[in-house]
Design goal:
9-stranded mixed sheet, about 40% helix, about 425 residues, homodimer, hydrolase (chains A, B), Urease, subunit C, domain 1, 17 strands, 5'-methylthioadenosine deaminase activity (chains A, B), alpha/beta, 2 domains
Amino acid sequence: MNKLIHSVTVVTMDNKNSVFDGFVIVKDDKFHEVKQGTPSEYDKNQADEIINGSGKWLLPGLINSHGHLGSAFLRGAGDDIPLMTWLKTVMWPNEQKFTEEIVKNAASLAMVEMVKSGTTTFLDMYHLYMDKMAELAISSEMRTVLCRGMIGLCPDREQDEKIAESIQLFHDYNGVNKGKVTVALSPHAPYTCPPSFMIKVVDAAKKNGMWIHTHLAETKGEVDRHIAEHGVSPVKHMDDLGLFDVPSLIAHGVHLTVEDLHILCEKNVSVAHNPMSNLKLGSGIAPIPDMINKGITISLGTDSTASNNNLDLFEEMRFAALIHKGTHEDPTVTTSEMILRMATNWGAKALQLEKLGKIKAGYQADFILVNPNSAHLLPSDKKRVLSHLVYSAKGSDVTDSFVGGVHIMKDKELLSLDEEKIIFEAKAFQI
Amino acid sequence: MNKLIHSVTVVTMDNKNSVFDGFVIVKDDKFHEVKQGTPSEYDKNQADEIINGSGKWLLPGLINSHGHLGSAFLRGAGDDIPLMTWLKTVMWPNEQKFTEEIVKNAASLAMVEMVKSGTTTFLDMYHLYMDKMAELAISSEMRTVLCRGMIGLCPDREQDEKIAESIQLFHDYNGVNKGKVTVALSPHAPYTCPPSFMIKVVDAAKKNGMWIHTHLAETKGEVDRHIAEHGVSPVKHMDDLGLFDVPSLIAHGVHLTVEDLHILCEKNVSVAHNPMSNLKLGSGIAPIPDMINKGITISLGTDSTASNNNLDLFEEMRFAALIHKGTHEDPTVTTSEMILRMATNWGAKALQLEKLGKIKAGYQADFILVNPNSAHLLPSDKKRVLSHLVYSAKGSDVTDSFVGGVHIMKDKELLSLDEEKIIFEAKAFQI
């Protein structure tokens, strides 16, 4: 099955980072050709489907490297209150009441929001009904990394069951739907997972060839308490326990020492930067420019709608692009190119996904079309496209989305998700 | 001319800050009634036009208290570079080439962007063709504060001409279009206006009953240089010169001492908070929570597209709502209610506009409708509406806009601005 998409401005995000008018040919799930200019008659004749891009910008689909879809119905249920009050009065009591249906409907709503704002790949760390989530992911045709979040503050047997459940998820779903679904191991955080449990997780990861995703160094309080209890920073401690001998992605990394940064760099640990959630919860601001200078791979995450409160990676890019300039009082510490890489090919690397995040022959055909004919994206020329994507574009400018060559949104209409039904169910939800 | 808008969720932003299902009746340019429930037959019979709000949220139109519309075509023309490089290589050389046509087309583009993202009132500080801008403002039907920006680094005669031009603008346009257009005096900044010029401006303000808008304490370098040259902070200096004896609005206020804050509070000076521009230019983060605690009136500004790079007040609200929580590591320092007030009735107060920024009988009928039927605004109930408006809504959710009772956007279609022509002209612009 060949698709030809012509009359587009291609934003490759390849090494040269070129932006040009041209076309792409998708063969099955991958890019077959990416070229400047107009397609030949031969190209047209080979295509099963020809799509006129009408001057839209074609760029890699955005990659959300940290989130919790199952709690999406808690958007706006508690804001502007201290973290522990929020957890104790909003998150935990509500999550205890979550049925399978609530989690599925919430995750579906989150997927609608993500597709409509240009996300094609997401990581989901959640502790409830992850096998159902896998089925939703498959039917949505989105690219998904599933992590059964594990809290280790429980008896040994329960710990082992959680790990076994994660491994089962891996065996059942890793690589399905043409590799669109993958599975990683996910101990929740050092403050909820005792060292003995972390060691078990590392062992399971090594035995099964899985990689690890965990929350790390999100708040100052958590880091201070860890040092008081264990005598070392959580990053140093996790490294001592062997966590970083397995490919790893940490979420947040807000409160880090120079030694921590050195460890992350040496052990090739990736970071999911969640600027909006970190700000909203009052956690702080991660030292992203320092990490970039060290060559640490930075990706972007939204975290959940309960702490963001949206899943629009264009907004997350905007925050990542602006806040570090402001706090460093230096507009050069981040550039639009860096930020777009966080949301595309750096994100792919952080999620251990090969050949993803660029518009390039041989790469996965995950891409979106952005309509540039709006006042807020003008004036425009090739030189300004990266700037506009990072500093001006909105999720609502995305009109089309393709994942592994499958057209999942066409002219803003969702093709793999039943938006009307999902919105109806979200409206019916009451807490 | 009576308009009845029913079946809406009204977000009054009045003292009680209530959110309820109801209707509003607009008589000429003002709200006549704002009520819960459904309109009576009598209400319907009295109306010349009945609009079914279809469950949308009706709230005060957003107020942008600081911007420079004429430079809108410089969006994305230079990013990620130091401030002085940006001014010297992007802003100043390009602005020197601006013709009347370029400035008019750029300002028109900016107005389209603002209306489409929910802004009904804006302040424009610019130095070129402000009489033409007044005509554009009138035909757009937007509520507008016009400020002929004055740089005082010039001979006395030129200074006097600039002040005379500002006063002429005031006499020609202040209060026109049913009071939708007002005019203020605008010395650019202490670093571009010597004390002797500031004294002339204060004198002109007092003589003509005008208020004053100026940039103040935007960057640390500017404040440090001011102290080195004059021995006092720019805020203290402006107060000594009598500036704050006239009603005043300062843009930015990023680098302030405790004494500065005390002066702003004592003299009832309002602040235009421009978080995105301050971050993007690396200027820093204004001490907004301290100002709020002191009772200083805070409004929101976008600054120009050259340093933002968009004019969407929903984004500005998001940044204002989140960054202070993050830098203070305290999620309680700002609330959704505070932020919405900055963009509505606090904004009105900052712009010296009476009876504006609330949905309330007797107030100006400046309001917008927001479509809540999108994944990113669900789930929703009355308790979550303020949260969703600040933490989740996008400019693109706004469907309708009314200013002084005039319907200027209907189902996303602009009624007072020729969007197609304005976009065509923006596309034709080349630098």
